[in-house]
Design a protein that fits this description.
Length: about 150
């Protein structure tokens, strides 16, 4: 199976209700509040080291059966800048995608340099649902230092 690095769109950052431990790297997030600054349709978004997917994407992933991640609730809010810059779009509901798989083996994994790695079948699904601002390039397992 083929695997790919994916750099999802950064649609925002941590909101004030996020709880994280910054004494370690990467920080450990125990409660995620994602504050959206600008969203352009991507069904997968990020702020290091966290990822979110739309509820529609969650359902599609569950239907296909996948490995290497779980879902959790996240608080998702929009900033004033979002409403001023994008008065029209309605933000879909998002959930926290908690990646715990091995890169190059599971459908979702985090590489030794903290990049998200996904399988070809997950990439195909994400592309069908919409990831217009994501950057995707081949994953080379031989480069993995774990």
């Amino acid at each position: 199976m083929q695997f790919f690095y994916i750099r999802p769109h950064v649609a925002g950052g941590f909101g004030e209700n996020t709880v994280l431990d910054t004494s370690v790297h990467p920080p450990i997030v125990s409660k995620l509040h994602y504050l959206v600054e600008g969203w352009f349709g991507d069904v997968l978004v990020t702020t290091f080291p966290s990822f979110l997917v739309t509820e529609e994407t969650e359902r599609a992933l569950l239907d296909m059966g996948f490995s290497g991640a779980t879902f959790a609730d996240a608080e998702v809010t929009t900033s004033e800048a979002f409403h001023e810059g994008q008065p029209g779009p309605e933000l879909p509901p998002f959930v926290w995608l908690k990646v715990n798989g091995q890169p190059g083996r599971d459908d979702f994994g985090i590489s030794s340099d903290y990049r998200l790695v996904i399988s070809k079948r997950v990439l195909d699904l994400l592309e069908s649902l919409g990831i217009p601002l994501a950057i995707v390039y081949p994953f080379e397992p031989s480069q993995e230092q774990r």
